[in-house]
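Q: I'm writing a short explainer about Mobile element protein for a general audience and would like to include a description of its predicted shape. Could you first generate the structure from this sequence?
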Amino acid sequence: MSAAHIDWHENPLLGLQVCAILDDSSRMIIAGGEYVHCNTENTITVIDELVREYWDICPLRELIMDHGSEFGAHRINKDGSWDSDFKRCIEELGIKPILARVRHPQTNGK
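A: Of course. Here's the predicted structure. Afterward I'll give you a sentence or two in plain language.
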């Protein structure tokens, strides 16, 4: 897999937060989970699932995401850099984080 998209969605019927990672080419959900809270810890858990299921077959090279606090991307420095537990987690796996443009949801999904 060359690239994937990650995002969170609220399921109001169940009162749960859903995190999903979609393959950029096939649009197939390749990892995901339902949680009570949308946070960095649960986001890393979904990354762990991705690694467990697909890493030996085809490691991910890029992960496209919004500027959500669950990714730590809401704290961007003036030079465009940012740091978070989530970013360090994916970079240690060799995944390049790509931030979608602010107020442009089309970037994170087709």
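A: For your explainer, you could say: The longest strand covers residues 3-11.
Q: Perfect, that's easy to follow.
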